[in-house]
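Work package 3, deliverable 3.1, input record:
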Amino acid sequence: MDEPRDEPRDEPRDESVDLPVDGDASAPPQAPPPAPQDAGAGGNGNGDDDGVIRTRALTKRYRGGQLAVDGLDLTVPAGSVFGFLGPNGSGKTTTIRMLMGLIEPTSGTARVLGQSMPRHARTVLPHVGALIEGPALYGFLSGRDNLLRQDAADPTADPRTRRSRVAAALDRVGLTAAAGKKARAYSLGMKQRLGLAAALLQPRRLLVLDEPTNGLDPQGMREIRTLVRELASDGTTVFLSSHLLDEIEQVCTHAAVMARGRLLTQGPVADLAAGARGRLVVTTPDPAEAARVLKEQGVGDVVADGDRVTGEPPERDLADVNAALVTAGVRARGFGIERASLEDAFVALTGEGFDVAG
Amino acid sequence: MSRAEPTAKTATTAKTATTATAAETATTGQAGPTGTAPAATAPGGTGGVGAARTLWTLGLLRSELVTTFRRWRTLALLAVLAAVPVLVGVAVRIETGGGGGPHGGGGGEGPAFIAQITNNGLFLVFTALAATLPVFLPLAVGVVAGDTIAGEASAGTLRYLLVAPAGRTRLLLTKYATVTAFCLAATFVVAVSALVVGALLFPLGDLTTISGTRIGFGEGLARALLIALVVAASLLGLAALGLFVSTLTNSGVAAMATTVGLVITAQILDQIPQLHAIQPYLFPHYWLSFADLMREPVYWDGLVKNLELQALYAAVFGSAAWARFTTKDITA
Ligand SMILES: Nc1ncnc2c1ncn2[C@@H]1O[C@H](COP(=O)(O)OP(=O)(O)OP(=O)(O)O)[C@@H](O)[C@H]1O
Ligand SMILES: [Mg+2]
């Protein structure tokens, strides 16, 4: 069993971005390893080696005086699927707006695809697909016409291939049948899909998705996950903000956690989850007896809940603990370490409090 | 009238200034796409790069025009404008009982030229333009211009246009070009509707100018066309003002209401005699000077002042809109 580390905060700035070699198969980060770079369109990959997104002391204070992002140092490695986490109001969307050149940072710098934003927005953004704070559509236009207009706004998009690219994007998000319908008649999930289609109109080197699964049905969510993995295997870097930690854990190779505008931690997902200790779980029809034996064996914080008895795993070999249970005649249906989920890590980092920071 | 000199001068300088900025922005606007085009076109992007690039840059304008003129609201505004000449024509026809007592010179009451309509349907064009220019046309333009940026912001589509990336200068120029197109379209809807109604309800033929000389029907049509162009140009100052207001707020409705409010305010101020010192700087002040095109010879003074004033407004508020929009935080 690998040693649970204490919280991996304050990682060195230039941490290497290798995937962790993790022998434990119970929570595999299912995303593919970083693909060789420059497979995507228009790849002059110079400057990408220091991250597809790299911010230094990025700070935004809104006009009302609200400090929304505070000294953010974020590095998104090329080829990663990067989960961007944080409670409501922690500054995720604000960060994304700065990365996309929609708002000017109060101080600090942001580089996307190796070029500084918002100054080089015109050269950077054609390689970036984005979904920011949910989809926004022209209700009086059909889904297809919405995409045609979005594509026409990009001066680097070839009008000769526009229709076929729009059709391909619609197909990719499963909207072909509803393409002729007015967008105001779309359901929330359909709008979300159309917004995603707009981000996929061209081959992109970076996809920035702010809560992409919001409003999607389970099939839709699954498709998005598949899509994200597919894109990542083509070498596209995906930067994904979400509240669904489950989602993040399933698709992301890396993650960062924000709270109150500050970055709490960033790094490979497996490392983050490992930061929160796993728990020993014994499933048994004799919970009282089991709890007694476990305490004897040095298991801390033993909690019996129905037929589940859990506790903090001891330093000693778990095989001995198991043997002790058997010797004491405790019947066990299950015995093992339950790995900490990203959710546990997230709550450990950001606290249990439900209230949004003001 | 004697203060015309300084006004004219400012207008000219301002005009030169805009031309310079426009040229400049056009160049910078080109720089982005030029830089990335070779990298971005993976397959088959080799032939006719120059022509293709222009086409690509104009793609947004085309999309904007189609989007604007397909909107239900735009069509409703144009329909109302088309209905005005019909109402005026029918009213005149009923009033005069179909006959036609020739009254001669300039109209006593009602819009200019209304008395001549029964003699010549072509006068309905002039009457309809004179009737719609003070209220209906500016209201329609105010709605469309006020909605340009603020409407996209309140729908949230602005952020997607900007990350496409449309480019802020390019988007603003496209929006102004579209409002200009709407000014033309609105004016021509009124003029064409009036011409059709006039031809159906009244006789056509040679016509008498305000100066009393007679001109042929062909020449009259040419003048009508010229007048329509001047009326459309009269709205360009307001269009720039509306564009500027539109960059100030994220609410499309607020921007439209403000622009329309400014139209009404300017019209009222223009009627208050005590304010005659500022009146030459109000954008509607010289609007009705288009009637001077019906004199023989044409009396250019007011027409030129009108166009200069519109250019001044376009320069000042166009620059203000540009300064505001290119530095604005887009959070909607
Ligand atoms: N336009 C704005 N003007 C002023 N303050 C703002 C603005 N937009 C956001 N804020 C503030 O900035 C902080 C960060 O907001 P942001 O939208 O970035 O959060 P978020 O992490 O995206 O939250 P959520 O998970 O709810 O989407 C919040 O405190 C919010 O109140
Ligand atoms: Mg958000």
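Residues 141 and 175 of chain B are 13 Å apart (CA to CA).
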